[in-house]
Design brief:
- It is a single chain.
- By secondary structure, the chain is mostly helical.
- The protein contains 6 helices and no strands.
- The longest helix has 28 residues, at 106-133.
- Bound molecules: protoporphyrin IX containing FE.
- Protoporphyrin IX containing FE (HEM) is lined by residues 47, 49-50, 53-54, 56-57, 60, 95-97, 113, 116-117, 120, 146, 149-150, 153-154, 157-158.
Length: 161
Amino acid sequence: MNAALAISIVVAGALSLLAPLRGAPLQDAPQPPAAPAAAAAAEEGDTPLMVEMEKIEQAEQFLRRSIGDAAQDAESLKQVAIAQQAILASKLMAPKMVTNVPEADRPKFLAEYRKSMASLLIEFTHLEQALLDGDRAAAKLAYKKLHAMEETGHNDFTDGG
Ligand code: HEM
C-alpha cells in the first residue's frame, strides 16, 4: 500500500465516524401541545349537581335566543324538557355548601333549596305552557322569571354566590 492510499483510507474512516453527527438536530422538534388537562380536570371535579346545572344552563342559553322565534318552538320545547329533567334530578341532591351549614340548620336549608328547585320547575313549566299556546309574551315573562331565579338560587345555595 503506498502512502497516498493509506492517507486516503484514514481520512475516509475519520469522515465516516463523523457522519452520524451531520444533520443531527440541534434540539428536539417542538411537541404538539398537551391535551387540555386543566379543562378535563375541572369536569372531573364537578359535583353531580353541577353536571345537572350545566344542562339547565345550556337549555337556558338556547332559550334566550329562541324564545322570540315561533319557528324554533319545537326545539325550544325540547330544551325545556331537558331543563325540567335536570331540575328533577337536581332537587333530590344536596348542594355541596350544606357541609358548611351548622347541623341544626341543615333541614331548613335543604327544605328551602328544594322549594327553590320546585319554583324553578314551575317556571319552566309556565314557559312550556306558553310555548304550546304560542303566547310569546307569556313565554318571555316566564323566561325572565326563571333567569332571575338563577341569581337568587346561587346567592342562597352556593358559597361563591
Ligand atoms: C336557570 C337557572 C339556573 C341555571 C342556568 C344554573 C346554572 C348553574 C351552573 C352552570 C352551575 C355550575 C357552576 C360551576 O360549574 O361552577 C350551577 C351550580 C349550582 N347551582 Fe345553579 N343554576 C340555576 C338555578 C339554580 C337554582 C334555582 C338553585 C337553587 C335552588 C341552584 C343551585 C346551584 C348550586 C347549589 C350549585 C353548586 C353545585 C353544588 O353545590 O354541587 N341553581 N348552577
